[in-house]
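Two proteins were folded this term; both appear here.
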Amino acid sequence: GQLFVLIGPGGAGKNAIMHIALEQVDNLRQLATATTRPRRDGEVEGQHHLFVSLETFQDMLQNGQLLEHEEVTPGRFYGIPRASVEDNLNAGRNLIADIDVNGARVLRSTYPDDATLIFITVPGQTADDMLNVLRQRMTERNSEGPQVIQQRLDRARDVELPFLTQADYVIVNDDITQAVADLIEIITRHTSPVEEAG
């Protein structure tokens, strides 16, 4: 199996693109990361995440079951369970995940032959242009206050946008239909059987 890792700033549309691709591509499933946050409406245990208590998460950490973890907001932890990745890849199943920059680095170094890093961003000639588009999108979405939006923009400027040059592919989400088509083309390129020369 192959592992497709979507990285990019908050507000770029990674989740939306990933979920449409999951509906359209056979033999592609979401990598279920472990999290201590509560389950949201519509989320399925084991499909979207492994929803665990803080105690369980700490046990997983101490037992070496997590490839990587991060406290994203105070008291809310996310981690990549080693078994979730290896069991699927060994069974020939392709995985897709929306992972932060640190997780992407760990997956690339742990599975160099199996991980493809795809950076999802917004239109813009410069980082400032992109940050303005992100601010506009997050403000229009109206799901977070100004302080959270600023934190996400600071993270985009300092952590995520600089990682763009390390990704295997960059998709500019100016039009979601085109962005999904670009993603599916990349997945197909990496999962189609290579024809043997005669």
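Next, the second protein.
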Amino acid sequence: MNVVYSSSDSYAPIAGTSICSLLENNQDAAKIEIYLIDNNISTDNKEKLKNMVQRYGRELIFVSHVDLNKKANLEIEVGRWNISTFYRLFLCSILPDNVDRAIFLDCDTIVRHSLNELWSMALEDKIVAAVDDCRSDQYKLELGLSPDNTYTNNGVLLLDLKRWRELNVEKDFLEYIVQNNGDITYVDQGVLNGVLSK
């Protein structure tokens, strides 16, 4: 099972709480590799996170993020959020090429039981599984979608990264960001829905 988080240093203690809940409630999993996209996490916080994960006999891998502003050639507007939220859209560029499937969790997510059922879910012809976000149709309209389109939450995602690479969805995400001058309603969640919603 590959589980991915993205965190800045200020969110590292919160990410640590989430990772602890993941490890505590998934001790039956044969293998868990945790990838943490590092947005300037301090050495001290990295050591604390590593030590905690090692106590569960699991592996924590820090991975570097991409420079999205440079990639898009513009300043991406994040408002009260952190640019870290966008990294989930560019996992094909961030994670090793042999990671074909992953669960992405927001670092403020508490895992209350096993993720095995989610991990083994058949995606069939879909490239991402997410939970419907209970928002009004106005959210969809602001993204140029119709009321009939889906609108999902980005907090918990099951991703078929092999298909993402084949379809080059990162290119579509980047084009969407550029078309909107880096100012997307609902930040990365707006990008995912704006590009992939049906």
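Residues 9 and 43 are 10 Å apart (CA to CA). The chain has a mean pLDDT of 93. These notes refer to the second protein only.
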